[in-house]
Design brief:
The structure is a homodimer. Chain A is of the alpha/beta class. Chain A folds into 2 domains: about 150 residues, FAD/NAD(P)-binding domain, CATH 3.50.50; about 200 residues, FAD/NAD(P)-binding domain. The longest helix of chain A has 20 residues. At the A-B interface, strand 5, helix 4 and helix 10 of A face strand 5, helix 4 and helix 10 of B.
Chain lengths: ~425, ~425
């Protein structure tokens, strides 16, 4: 393959990558030495380390600690241009990406890695009362709500209304829900101690609500049980086997019972980016693209789909929507594009499952790696080291470790600053 | 004086302090051992280290690095209750503070330390096009605008419009304007190097516009001249002696000439908090309260005014609106309230001027302490140490020093994350 520098930019194929998350960024990086020019389009200016997003929402980290500008990450890769823009639609027959600012990009190969957003299963009116957590703006908004609830409780003279401000519910017992519930209980019991005069923050009720039979359903049953016990030790009430049937500004319905709660967080469902629908291919129930084994969109050989937007089964089980799977897909798509340009056949994608980690709260986590199962303090250390290791940027790692060391010794959280307006 | 614990809360005088800035917070702390109960009211939940606010706006620091929750700072001071609320008005005849949430506080002594906001000298329509910098939300909004301007320029094919996106103006040559202009020039010339493909960020024009004859008018003339030279070395065009006469979304008028500029920042004027007007006393032209020498509001012996809201002359010169003056005033008010409770006479306030520092950009600053005048690298180190020393909280100091060390070696800025929406 000739070096990129020896070819004029207009002679090489144009690869457009939509989305600067794990899948998109890893695809771009995998094409660093390919004779292509790349345009990476993202609606934000940054790559986000999503596994630590809940830490921004719970005031442990600040937004820049877990994000880095895409331009900066890719500044040394000369064959890529970063474009900050929202994508309106894809027009496969004309091989065009249509931008919301009116611009258009013509592609030879398209990598669609636009990810997912939260889904309310047909109850979109819940969105206002039970925000979800996908972006940094979501996290800052959630942080604001969680911290304000204690402020409102402190100022509320009526005991029943005060109790409603101190009642929190997290809907969805997956990794995000478990992380949020455990950390929120820690904040109420430890971080805010002695700071209020009219309320006892430790009296706050934190409920984690899972409609299925157990939390962390992606883990073996014994680890789910460990997680439940660790959550309860932190002060979380865990409810399983019953779904939330209504949510409004005053509380929620769990089965027949109405529970007053001014703060409800949605961690229950994700839906694919609406861009998938503009491809003109059949989608699955969650709106994702059922891709071919090589990650091509069906019947669209110049379009690859990677990350949370791709629906794929392997050995009878779906490839999970986690960061390692997205990175592997991104890398595979880069290989596939290089193979196609060289006239070689494209190998099918194989997801390699290196294991599954979830953190629960202070010194509590579960780890499942092949036959190894850990829970408690040891699992927490494992989780911490793995996450700090995978953070992009030397500075971020140092700052995050410093914040955690400080938080461990003081029970404090560095980012308890309320930003924005109602 | 009896220990506070021996007195029932209802028997001791109630001191209400409005504003958790330097003046208000230092007043509260000065009353730690007084037999009073204190309510500190602030519309935010945090104390802000305002001297470093420009660093948040220019993406060098994140919001939580320069702020700490008021509750946390004061958790050990048992005679104070923190109330997060906006104040609507003061009702001196009934000794009441009226809150926007409908609540009321009855005071025996009131400390008004609500600070200042930006003023457009009767041109309020400029606010939309030329935002100012007083709060963390202002800083995040400004950061967004500054970073987005380069993104828009990169995506703009028309050369004239692209130039307008790369044209920046800072109106006002005081310390904030100088800091913003110097840092912005550094970002354009160094931080963004190699990151864009269609524009050269170093071609950005950064103009600092001062209507008076020189920048940093609070400093001796030779230091102003030094500051101007250091700014020019960093790439800032310094304009003095001419006022901006109009600002809109496309640019601004400087005298007769129209200058295209999509990003204009207002650092030119401050106006007192509108709460001053509800006191029912005569105000000065900037809306501040001309206080008596002991910081009492004229004719209102139970009301003290401290910080930027207080207008006071000393030895024929106004006490400046800087952090050290606000702290000294806060401390004085605490003394005055304790003296009054003990039946002693209240001494007049004396501002002690320990000197004046302003930073300009990378390794550039001016320092004026009595007969000592410094500029350049040495002044910058002095400025840095002084500011880190006065930051509240051990963790903040470590993180800020770490960020600056990193920024110094890499020319990078840690917080280049665009948050929020248009």
């Amino acid at each position: 393959m000739p070096a990129p520098d020896s070819i004029s930019p207009d002679q090489v194929p144009h690869v457009v990558v939509i989305g600067g998350g794990f899948a998109g960024l890893w695809a771009v990086r995998g094409l660093a030495r390919a004779a292509v020019r790349i345009t990476l389009v993202d609606r934000g200016n940054h790559h986000l380390f999503q596994p630590l997003l809940y830490q921004v929402a719970t005031a442990g980290l600040s937004a820049p600690d877990i994000a880095a500008p895409l331009r900066h990450i890719l500044r040394g890769q000369r064959n890529v241009e970063v474009r900050m823009a929202a994508v309106r639609a894809i027009d496969p027959p004309r091989r065009r990406v249509l931008l919301e600012d009116g611009g258009e990009l013509i592609y030879d190969q398209l990598v669609l890695a636009a990810g997912a957003t939260h889904a309310y299963f047909g109850n979109d009116q819940w969105a206002e009362h039970a925000p979800g957590l996908k972006t940094l703006d979501d996290a800052l908004q959630l942080r604001r709500r969680l911290l304000l609830a204690f402020e409102r409780a402190e100022a509320e003279p009526d005991p029943r209304r005060r109790a409603a401000w101190l009642s929190f519910a997290i809907v969805g017992g997956g990794p995000t829900g478990v992380e949020l519930a455990g950390t929120l209980a820690e904040i109420a019991r430890h971080t805010l101690k002695r700071e209020f005069r009219n309320i006892d923050p430790a009296a706050a009720r934190v409920r984690l609500i899972e409609a299925g039979p157990r939390v962390l359903a992606g883990f073996p049953e014994d680890l789910s049980e460990q997680a439940r016990r660790q959550l309860q030790r932190l002060g979380v009430e865990v409810s399983t086997g019953q779904a939330v049937t209504a949510i409004d500004g005053e509380g929620y319905h769990l089965g027949e019972a109405f529970v007053p709660a001014r703060t409800v967080v949605w961690a229950a469902g994700v839906a694919a980016s609406p861009l998938a629908a503009t491809l003109g291919v059949p989608l699955d129930r969650a709106g994702r693209v059922p891709v071919q084994p090589d990650l091509q969109a069906p019947g669209q050989p110049e379009i690859f789909v990677a990350g949370d937007l791709a629906a794929l089964e392997q050995d009878g089980r779906p490839v999970p929507g986690v960061a390692p799977a997205a990175k592997q897909m991104g890398r595979h798509v880069a290989h596939a594009i290089r193979a196609r340009l060289a006239g070689r056949t494209i190998a099918p994608f194989r997801y390699r499952d290196y294991g599954n980690l979830a953190t629960i709260g202070r010194m509590a986590a579960v780890v499942h790696l092949g036959r190894l199962k850990l829970s408690g303090v040891l699992a927490w250390w494992f989780w911490l080291l793995a996450h700090v290791f995978f953070l992009i940027g030397f500075r971020n790692r140092v700052v995050v470790l410093l914040n955690w060391t400080w938080a461990y010794w003081t029970y404090q959280r560095a980012a308890r600053i309320i930003l924005g307006r109602d």
